[in-house]
Amino acid sequence: MSDASACELCSTPGGVVLWSNEHLRVVRVDDPDYPGFLRVIWQGHVREMSDLDAAQRSCLLDAVLATERALIALLRPDKVNLASLGNMTPHLHWHVIPRFRGDPHFPDPVWAARRGGIPVALPMPIVDYEQAVAAAMVRELQGRTG
């Protein structure tokens, strides 16, 4: 898909926007098995990390790591998975997924066959969680991502 007009992440937010700036946005993915699942999406239609210059790559990775730290602080997961695939949606984005022993796919990737387990429940109402992630992003990225 080379046409940005046909790109899902160009034409939609890609989830509930929790934080954004002119370069990127952090969204909550609506996945009932993983309510803490976040996605960091580059604002412009870019396919690969290597399409960004050094400053842009640094901006994006700072946001991915800030997102990871926010999830660790808020949810205390057993592990956080980071993934940048783009095979289905070739628009630069990172998945930031808190993982817990006993979740429906653990220890496999969330895209693998279900093993059983139970969906993860947030330790707070979703509105509080969204506000907490947004506040954590502001604290983490103040002045660092443009």
Give an overview of the whole structure:
- With 146 residues, this protein is α+β, with helices and mostly antiparallel strands.
- The chain has a single domain (4-141), classed as HIT family, subunit A, CATH 3.30.428.10.
- The protein has three helices and five strands, in the order αβββαββα.
- A five-stranded antiparallel β-sheet has the order 1-2-3-5-4, covered by helices on one side.
- A hairpin with a 3-residue loop joins strand 1 and strand 2.
- Helix 2 (54-75) packs across helix 3 (126-141).
Summarize this structure as a short list of keywords or feature phrases.
146 residues, alpha+beta, HIT family, subunit A, 5-stranded antiparallel β-sheet, globular
What would you call the shape?
A: globular
| Tally of domains | 1
- The rounded Rg comes to 15 Å
Q: Which strand order spans the largest sheet, edge to edge or round the barrel?
A: 1-2-3-5-4
Largest sheet: 5 strands, antiparallel
| β-strand number | 5
CATH architectural label: 2-Layer Sandwich
CATH superfamily: HIT-like
Helix % is: 25-40%
The chain-level structural class is alpha+beta
Termini gap: 28 Å
CATH topology: HIT family, subunit A
SSE string, helix = H, strand = E?
Answer: HEEEHEEH
Q: Approximately how much beta-strand content do the residues carry?
A: 15-25%
Mean pLDDT: 87
Number of helices: 3
Would you identify the regions where 5 or more consecutive residues have pLDDT less than 50?
none
